[in-house]
Fold this sequence. Notes:
Helix content is 36%, strand content 22%. The chain contains 24 helices and 31 strands.
Amino acid sequence: MNLRFSCARALSAVSTWVLKTAFHRPAANFPGKIALYADPLLLQHLRARLSESSVLVVGTNGKTTCTNLVADALEAQGFAVACNRTGANLDSGVATTLLQAKRADWGVFETDELWMARILPHLRSRYVLLLNLFRDQLDRVGEIDHIQNSIVGALGKSPDTVLVYNADDPLCQAIAERCPNRTLAFGLTESMGAEQNTVTDARMCQRCSGMLSYEFHQYGQLGSYACPACGFARPQLDFWASEVEATSEGLSFSLHAKGRVHPVRAPFPGAYMVYNLLAVATLSGLLGVTSASLDTAIQNFDPQNGRLQRYRLGGTDLLMNLAKNPTGFNQNLRLIAQEEAARKVAAFFVNDREGDGRDISWLWDIDFQELADAGLACAFVGGMRANDLQVRLKYAGISAKVVSSATEVLSGARACCPDASVYLIANYTALPEVKAEVDALAVLSEDELDKVLACDRSCDARHAEDGDGAASADGMAGEAAGGCASAAQVQGVAADEPPVVIVHAYPDLLNLYGDGGNVTVLERRLRQRGIPVRVVRVEHGEQLSLDNADLVFLGGGPDREQRLAAEALMGQRDRLQRFVDEDGVVLAICGGYQMLGRVWLMGDEQVPGLGLVDIETRRATGDSRNRLIGDVVADCTDPAAGVLVGYENHAGRTYLGAGLSALGQVRGRVGFGNNGDDRTDGVMSGGVFGTYLHGPVLPKNPRFADLLLTRALERHARRCGRPAPILKPLDDREELAAQRFMLERLKTAGS
């Protein structure tokens, strides 16, 4: 070993001692980070400490659980293991683990999807376990094809590494087809009956422009899939699970491996845990772990890290879990719904720190409406983005109270329904805060806990007021239960009034940033006022029907899906132009906004657009910023819409033709807008509105939503030959609170 390696070891040892002794910190990343500065080839040198080899666990969801279980199984078999159990999954975390470990037989390392390219070529691991790929942290990692390219590149630099992958995920199958390495596929041979969520990350074939069909569908994009156009399909499985049973009490299945059948049972709930355990069982068998050792590891698995962790606090049962993207949240909602508790209290904590991703548009891809039928007694929201969560739940028909802590959740739960079970779901950086608080409560005696959670009458009164007020102020809770105001009871609406028609164009292709939330807001704001409304979803392969339409919505999508949607829209350009000429209203976001212009950016290629407005989108030239990403505050050109708050993430630079009005003027330094130069965002031309603001844009900007609805109702009235109904005011306390939170947070940046 050379001098640089010796220096790296010394720096690591000193920094570890200082962090643990002087600052009482875990020292999970920094020692490795500073050591890598001293010796960039550190991981190559450290792999000699592993007498066998190493395995890397990569994927969007389940990395920490699977990494720990594989390590436990190896240890139960008698192997010595080095493992980054706390989830420090960058190269610095892996380096720290190896530096602090004694010599081991195996290294088992959780690895960030993009950082695998900096780890695998140095470690030359024997196996890579690829669990799944779901949309996650778009502002940091970009679209999923960027992750796929990175993983394929990393595998290519370690040719002897075997890829063990979830073949039920077409995004993982695409990686297996592209990489030169040996591959082993695992999956399920039957449906678990867990299908959920209309938003998936791989509706489009990974080889061609066809759309996938499914023999059965599990959740997200997982299942048994095939493309009728080109033959891309789930391959023959090398390892598979059959006879799957997943209940609130636990799960079981039969693992078929190398001609033998092994029963697997676990005391964990959740359909997603079937895939985690199948992955663990498959890899453990390849590493020489017996069924008995695997079973020992599974039955004794209790990581105490907040993942599926249960507590008994006084007389309250509590379940805590991690969820950091739509698929993870949706599986947690399914878990809550399947729990046998008669009454349930759910609390959701979401932060938007760097580790979480700043963009929280994914909240609108979560099926929170499933909770309405899950015996939910009350709901709470917390974390840095509690206000956005409250708005999201409101539009799912659920009244939620904003809280500042898990203690407040438990106190509120005792006030509203003391016999309920409590479910705490938190995202990445919120989970440690919530867990630490609950752990502190768990060691208290019952009397001490009662004192901490005691609510005086004034607190009870405030809780009742908050809950009842939010549920009844705008009628959303009633609507979720099937009730809404009769159209005949609302001023200006006749009993036989035809519905306002909102056309959602290609939501199966254009819904990258929770864009469908805009349609949800428009629909609900009409229903709240007793105005009949019908949403028409026009999906791939269908034609737009605009004769009776009043408003058309276009979202943005990944490059491949956006290309397919653009082809369909260009074939209907005249129909769209006629709709616009007849005062039809169009709201277009991100990629949909670009398509409206004469020229727009499809990937790196400039292509003809719909030409509905005189705008042009080009690539940046001589600009060091590849993408324009971040929060945006803009003052709308139409004062009726007021201020606009949202998020942007785009590479194209859009320029407006002479005489066109921007939708808004970007405030100070808060955001880039159309191009980062002229401090404008979007376009407003007649009934056509385009913007780069997503998140989606309407939930936090109710005045803008009502401006669109006013325009749509004017067209509707002319089309039906009736007077336009009056848009009565709504209770927008939650929406405006979410807007004010962001304005307050961003005011320093905008000054």
